[in-house]
Design goal:
Elements lengths: L2 H8 L11 H13 L7 H69 L5 H65 L3 H10 L3 H4 L2 H17 L4 H7 L11 H30 L8 H30 L4 H4 L10 H27 L9
Helix pairs in contact: 1-4, 2-3, 2-4, 3-4, 3-5, 3-7, 4-5, 4-7, 7-8, 9-12, 10-12
Length: 363
């Protein structure tokens, strides 16, 4: 797979304008080479020297853009991490304080000698308050778990941003040296990219480790496997399953047979001189609602395909779980499977109606 395609598939769509403009840089290289003088002379050499400077200036602008965006995202991440830590500490402190408070009050009321019935009622009321507190704490803790897991996913995307941009510069500068027959691209990479903040910074890796430690030790109480399962990051490039692709093709092929079959059945019964009449209107009324539902699923799958191929992050827009959501192939597989059942049932309905054999069992 060419790097341009690999970059397009693995970038974070809402940051797409902040990545290295690899395709335009590559087109610029080929455009420079195509316009170069053909004769082996000093004019050709001067042309490539000047073009080399212009191209490296473009690369410098790209590196400034990437460094600026990375610095902004890193600053936001550090601030967000501090807020999450403060929220966790606040939750733990409140939990300790409320637990101690209710325990002491329950202890005093238990050993009180006045008004036994009233004491019984007070203990019941106190226990009910503790249950409410635990339920409330559980809801705040679930929100914090979700926030930590989403923050962890964002850090992985930011780390991927570092890697993709560095690889993009390496690829384009290597292509530059090959086409221009120079070594200035490699030298420029060593001088400007290998020491660039977006590449040299290890703060993102540090934040990832800190989030993992916090989640393991404070959220899951030392259970690493459970914590990492919760923090699991989906593949950045959604690879389609071969089995799903096979079933989708099989259902589509079955539809190509069932649609003409319905037409053949309809024409045959209509052309027959039998005295039996088929209630076509009842069949259409019975089956139209399910048809609309199924066609909606298929069209939604086509929409998801369109969004995915054009860089629209529908997972973010519709607030879906980035770790567990349906791909366009899953939607299309479900829709075509239901459509196959729909056509089989409709065909059987008309056949059973023709032979007067319980037709309304089918729908």
């Amino acid at each position: 797979m060419k790097f341009g395609e690999y970059l397009r598939r693995n970038l974070t769509s809402e940051w797409s304008s902040q990545y290295i403009d690899y395709e335009n840089l590559k087109e610029l290289l080929y455009e420079i080479v195509n316009k170069a003088p053909t004769d082996e002379s000093s004019l050709r050499q001067e042309y490539f020297v000047q073009a080399d400077q212009e191209f490296l200036q473009c690369c410098e602008r790209e590196s400034i853009k990437i460094n600026t965006f990375f610095a902004q995202k890193l600053a936001q991440s550090l601030l967000q991490f501090d807020n999450l830590k403060n929220e966790l500490e606040y939750l733990e402190e409140n939990d300790r304080h409320d637990h101690l408070f209710f325990t002491n009050r329950l202890f005093l009321r238990t050993f009180s000698t006045n008004e036994n019935n009233s004491n019984h009622t007070s203990k019941y009321s106190q226990l009910r308050s503790i249950r409410k507190l635990k339920k409330h704490r559980s809801m705040k803790l679930n929100d914090l778990k979700l926030a930590l897991s989403e923050f962890y996913l964002m850090l992985i995307l930011l780390k991927n941003y570092q890697s993709l941009n560095y690889n993009g510069f390496c690829k384009i500068l290597k292509k530059h040296d090959k086409l221009f027959q120079m070594t200035t691209g490699c030298q420029w990479r060593i001088s400007y990219i290998d020491c660039a903040p977006f590449y040299r910074s290890t703060r993102v890796d540090g934040l990832i480790s800190e989030i993992e430690n916090v989640y393991i030790n404070k959220i899951e109480h030392g259970d690493r496997s459970r914590a990492m399962q919760r923090l699991r990051v989906p593949p950045l490039e959604e690879n389609q399953s071969r089995s799903v692709t096979f079933r989708l093709g099989m259902f589509f092929g079955m539809l190509l047979l069932l649609v003409p079959l319905l037409l053949i059945v309809s024409i045959s019964f209509y052309a027959s001189h039998s005295s039996k009449s088929i209630d076509w209107r009842s069949g259409l009324h019975l089956y139209r609602s399910s048809f609309l539902l199924i066609i909606h699923i298929i069209f939604f799958g086509l929409n998801v395909f369109g969004w995915s191929t054009n860089g629209v992050n529908h997972v973010l827009i519709f607030e879906l779980d980035p770790r567990n959501h349906l791909t366009y192939q899953k939607f299309l597989e479900t829709g075509t499977f239901l459509m196959v059942l729909w056509f089989i049932s409709l065909n059987l309905f008309f056949v059973c109606f023709y032979f007067d054999y319980y037709p309304f069992v089918q729908p």
